[in-house]
Structures are given as C-alpha cells and as structure tokens.
Amino acid sequence: xxxxxxxxxxxxxxxxxxxxxxxxxxxxxxxxxxxxxxxxxxxxxxxxxxxxxxxxxxxxxxxxxxxxxxxxxxxxxxxxxxxxxxxxxxxxxxxxxxxxxxxxxxxxxxxxxxxxxxxxxxxxxxxxxxxxxxxxxxxxxxxxxxxxxxxxxxxxxxxxxxxxxxxxxxxxxxxxxxxxxxxxxxxxxxxxxxxxxxxxxxxxxxxxxxxxxxxxxxx
Length: 219
Fold this sequence. Notes:
Blueprint: H1 2-5, H2 7-20, E1 26-30, H3 36-43, E2 47-51, H4 55-63, E3 68-69, E4 79-85, H5 94-104, E5 105-116, H6 121-126, H7 144-153, E6 156-164, H8 169-185, H9 192-204, E7 207-214
C-alpha cells in the first residue's frame, strides 16, 4: 500500500535522474528499505544496488532480485548515481558519509539527497510537534543552507537545491486509490487515525531536495 501511494513521487524523482544521467548507469540507494525505488529504477534500464541496515528489509529486496548490503563499505563497483532518500539525517557523520560516496562515484557521478527541511515554515510553527522533528531517530536536522554547505564541502557542485513538499496532489490520489484497493480486495482497512496522519504529513512534511555533481578536487 505504501509503495503504491509513493509511485508518483518515485516517478518524479526518476525523471530528474534521467534528465541528468540516462541508462545504462548504476544507481546506489543508501537506506533503500525494501528497495521500492530501485525496483522502479531498474524498469527504466538502470543497474541497481542498495545499502540497508535492516536485515528483514534486505531479505525482502533480495527476494525480488535486488542486491542489498548492510554497509556502504561493502560496495565495491563504480557508481554513477547515488541517492539518499531521507537517510542522511540518520547518519552520525554526514560529511564522512558524503565523502565516502564521493570516492565511489564515477568522474561525472551524480548525488541526489532528500532530508526534512528544519528551516521550513511548518517546522518553525510547530516546533517539537512538527512531523519530522524526531531527535530519537534523526542525528541531524538540515536547512537548505546547511545541506548545501555539507554537500559542497564533500566535493560536489550543486546543480539544484530547493525546499519542497514531496507529497503532491498525485501522491495523495495514489494513496487514496491504494487504501481503497487494499481495503476492498485484501481486507486491509485503514483507520481514521492513519488517514489523518497521512493528511498531516501531506500538509506539513516539507523537505530539502538537492542534486549535485561530483568534482574531482574537494574544496
């Protein structure tokens, strides 16, 4: 159900990647969960590999033929595109992580990152009640400027960076279709509380999105 609801979002992200680096190419997804994004990416002709610390998620990814390892250190092949979809904020040392990715990327490699926007209006209004203020899960919170700073310091030139709402109208419609379909055919009912939580995230979940290209000399 979650995968269906996120399909428009994933297609939009893939369109951004395709505009900069078409297949054949290899995409690395760090914090890939059960690899739904990589599954879509390989349908467009990309080679894919993931990093995911959760053993159960890795097993599910392997079941559908996607190679996933628990640590970035186990990635040995050259990577053309690296993505971190809401995973960099879980990292204890973001700069070290980005520098490791820099070393894996090919000479014209691309990195794409999404993190909660701690500087967004909703974050400032709701403070500790903001949906993505999660100090128990997130080691760092980023603003547009702080994310730009760490990406450039790691040796990348920023192509685009913006604050955005990841869940658009299409995503909301897709989520509604997913809930109705799984409710009718699979008996998976969605509680009112869950429906309200989805709407709350749609309204207040603002992120920072950056795409950057590797440069061979770090700043």
